[in-house]
Design the sequence.
């Protein structure tokens, strides 16, 4: 029987183009005893529209929280943007009665009400707080001691601290700890907490890609064999766009970008074929063969 | 756009009440605390690669009440919302939130980069910010993933029908 039960909030980016993250996360969570219930209906968390209409963001986020309340379940997200937004709005509406009433007026039009009795968590938070490091370590049957990787947290899992508040945004430890639990070495590098640039895509692609390139340079410097992400947007920036960055700036990286659940899945003994590595753009054969050889 | 920021400032351009307008909005409350130390700009990852984007300058323009210059500036849309400035500001100005307030005010004047209107219409049509191709939905099945939850479009429209941005978004689409 599942020990933890969550409402799965997929967000927009993952079903749009980041299937590998969802596939690997579902496999890993199932094995760790986390049961996922699908959202009965869905709307965007609201974050993409915050720049043009804060009110819209509040309503869209509150709408999802109200639906989760009807289900009586806490929300799990794979996207830090969704998690951050749902957490932030949950806190704001719980603390500010006037704002809550204002937003509830909109929700009432659709027969919904925000009450403030569920929580939203990102998968990383569920892994570290609910499943627990000990259990994760127990489930590792194939320690990945043969590989050295670099982590990339992304912004919205760390900042603003006031709303996210489960790791230190200046010196984050959670993802590192989770990576080390798989047996892999997690390398330090320059500007680890820097933005991937994804939010600037569509406004100024050049700046966005320069940001991503900077990070790839820093990771290359420490000879990381792969980069590990926990955000669909960061993953798009580094994996989907890596070739584009290489061409644009005449660089050669060849750094595979893995979703954390793919790495954990390998360590938990899930077959590589089941973890959707074929959905990734950058060639992963080198690191996979290293993992397979090392296991023999 | 640098031009907008570098032209000499005329006293008649200044709207002394603008800062109070900002301070009344969620996230803009602490604008007046900024003493121009420059932590935001020096820590800003976008500023490093842009010749024009300077969060400190945006805050100063807002404080001075140079409403048109700041709201009509392209640079306003360059913030990546990484919140580094917000977390590191020694005055707790919540710089990224002030910038978001300014963008919201620009949007009220009809200044909205296309990417946002597209996402807005997509949400009204499907619940999702991006138009997910039919092929992707079908592929989920072969990948062993559960069907994607549908957006309750009618209900979403009801909750958003009197929001200014959506009125504009929908009206524009109808044109």
Sequence:
């Amino acid at each position: 029987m599942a020990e933890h039960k969550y409402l799965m909030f997929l967000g927009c980016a993952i079903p749009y183009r980041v299937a590998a993250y969802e596939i690997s996360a579902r496999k890993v969570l199932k094995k760790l005893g986390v049961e996922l219930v699908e959202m009965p209906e869905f709307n965007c968390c609201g974050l993409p529209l915050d720049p043009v209409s804060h009110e819209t963001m509040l309503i869209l986020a509150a709408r999802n929280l109200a639906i989760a309340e009807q289900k009586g379940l806490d929300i799990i997200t794979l996207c830090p943007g969704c998690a951050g937004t749902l957490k932030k709005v949950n806190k704001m509406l719980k603390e500010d009665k006037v704002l809550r009433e204002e937003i509830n007026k909109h929700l009432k039009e659709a027969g919904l009400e925000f009450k403030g009795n569920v929580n939203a968590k990102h998968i990383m938070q569920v892994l570290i707080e609910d499943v627990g490091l000990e259990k994760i370590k127990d489930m590792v049957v194939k320690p990945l001691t043969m590989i050295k990787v670099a982590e990339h947290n992304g912004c919205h899992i760390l900042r603003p601290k006031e709303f996210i508040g489960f790791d230190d945004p200046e010196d984050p430890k959670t993802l590192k700890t989770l990576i080390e639990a798989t047996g892999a070495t997690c390398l330090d590098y320059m500007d680890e907490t820097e933005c991937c640039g994804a939010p600037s895509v569509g406004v100024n692609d050049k700046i966005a890609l320069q940001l991503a390139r900077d990070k790839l340079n820093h990771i290359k410097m420490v000879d990381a064999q792969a980069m590990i992400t926990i955000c669909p947007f960061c993953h798009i920036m580094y994996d989907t766009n890596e070739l584009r960055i290489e061409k644009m700036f005449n660089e050669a990286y060849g750094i595979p970008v893995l979703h954390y659940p793919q790495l954990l899945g390998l360590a938990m003994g899930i077959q590589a074929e089941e973890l959707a590595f074929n959905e990734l753009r950058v060639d992963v054969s080198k690191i996979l063969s290293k993992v397979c050889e090392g296991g023999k | 756009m640098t031009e907008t920021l570098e032209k000499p400032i005329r006293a008649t351009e200044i709207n002394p009440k603008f800062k109070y307008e900002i301070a009344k909005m969620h996230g803009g409350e602490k604008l007046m605390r900024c003493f121009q130390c420059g932590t935001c700009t020096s820590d800003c990852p976008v500023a490093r690669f842009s010749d024009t984007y300077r969060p400190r300058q945006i805050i100063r323009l807002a404080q001075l009440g140079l409403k048109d210059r700041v709201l009509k500036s392209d640079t306003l849309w360059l913030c990546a919302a990484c919140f580094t400035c917000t977390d590191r500001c020694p005055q707790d100005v919540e710089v990224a939130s002030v910038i978001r307030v300014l963008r919201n005010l620009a949007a009220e004047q009809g200044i909205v980069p296309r990417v946002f209107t597209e996402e807005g219409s997509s949400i009204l049509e499907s619940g999702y910010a991006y138009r997910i191709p039919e092929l992707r939905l079908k592929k989920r099945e072969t990948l062993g993933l559960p069907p994607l939850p549908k957006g309750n479009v009618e209900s979403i429209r009801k909750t958003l029908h009197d929001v200014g941005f959506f009125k504009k978004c929908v009206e524009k689409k109808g044109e």
